[in-house]
Design brief:
This protein has 301 residues and is an alpha/beta fold. It has twelve helices and eight strands. The structure holds flavin-adenine dinucleotide.
């Protein structure tokens, strides 16, 4: 990223919220469930499937976590009624992980049970390293009972290969991504190429252990390396999928769909869009230009 880009990243908290909202709107389906369903219908028509996420994180009040559970239950009803092809993703700090782990476990169990009643699936997103152990404890506790949960490993984490090793013999389902949180060097690899290397090593290990692989990246190098691994190990089409974020590199998305790969798009919605959107903006190589244009009121592209 250019020096100017890095400057804008550093000063992003000073950018007025409406400007951030305008620039980041491509990453979020909208504030309501109905808008999100409409987005998923469009994606399904393009040959993509989806994972829907209720935005929000780091809640410190129980009623907020309970409201999120209710929203997920409403979401499963809507997925069932509308017939769209989507599962869901959840963030444990929205469901009370920072309040009390047992409370969070109960909330995840309600969601897993609601998903199970309509034959759906729940992906537990991975947040920063302070959440990793508790997230895996909750996953390992509920997965044997419900069988419809998946977890996420981040290739920037030094522990990831070991975590893959510790997955159960059967039924494992892992989304592999680079990781987005700013982590200390004690726990995370820092070099761009190091994180790529570990991504490929982790994917190879997942394939060797017959773990369902959800390959989440927009990095063309990693997509190419993943396709090569899938071919080399003759991984059947129903044992993997690619995943991408809403609003990012739609061309690469279509290339993968046209090549016959299953492609799932992460579709977040809700009123609490700010933390998610700023993380996405920080990753966008063109972010500084978009933010400056929006600040100056210049029409984009
Ligand atoms: C489906 C999905 C789920 C995820 N879940 C998690 C999770 O649970 N926990 C977690 O820590 N992280 C998660 N992530 C985020 C992930 O860790 C990375 O931060 C993010 O995907 C960017 O990494 P990359 O592999 O695309 O490589 P990068 O090197 O960051 O990006 C490669 C290229 O993609 C394009 N690109 C990437 N991001 C953007 C953007 N925002 N706007 C425009 N262009 C962009 C650019 O062209 C860039 O050069 C998820 C990502 C995906 C796709």
């Amino acid at each position: 990223m250019s020096l100017f880009g890095r400057l804008v990243v550093t000063t992003l908290p000073l950018v007025p919220k409406p400007v951030v909202g305008k620039v980041a709107s491509r990453y979020v389906a909208g504030e309501t469930l109905e808008e999100a369903l409409e987005e998923v219908r469009k994606l399904n028509a393009q040959g993509a499937i989806a994972t829907m996420d209720v935005l929000g994180e780091e809640v410190s009040e129980r009623p907020k976590a309970e409201a999120a559970v209710e929203e997920y239950i409403r979401l499963f009803e809507a997925i069932e009624a509308s017939g769209v092809d989507s599962n869901v993703s959840i963030k444990l700090t929205l469901l009370g992980l920072k309040i009390d782990e047992g409370f969070c476990l109960d909330n995840v169990e309600r969601i897993a049970s609601a998903a199970s009643s309509i034959g759906n699936f729940v992906r537990i997103d991975m947040e920063d390293h302070t959440c990793t152990d508790a997230t895996l404890r909750i996953y390992h506790q509920l997965q044997p009972k419900y069988g419809n949960l998946g977890v996420v490993f981040q290739s920037y984490m030094r522990r990831t290969l070991q975590d893959i090793e510790e997955m159960p013999e059967t039924g494992g389902n892992v989304r592999l991504c680079k990781g987005i949180y700013i982590e200390p060097r004690e726990v995370a690899w820092k070099g761009y190429e190091t994180v790529r290397y570990n991504f490929v090593a982790a994917l190879e290990k997942m394939i060797a252990r017959d773990i369902y692989a959800a390959i989440a990246t927009h990095d063309e190098y990693l997509v190419c390396a993943a396709v090569a691994l899938l071919e080399r190990y003759q991984v059947p089409q129903d044992r993997y999928e690619f995943q991408m974020l809403l609003g990012v590199d739609e061309q690469l998305r279509q290339i993968l769909i046209d090549a016959g790969h299953r492609l799932r798009v992460y579709v977040p919605y809700g009123k609490d869009w700010y933390p998610y959107s700023t993380r996405r903006l920080r990753e966008n190589p063109e972010m500084a230009i978009h933010v400056m244009r929006a600040m100056l009121g210049v029409r984009k592209d």
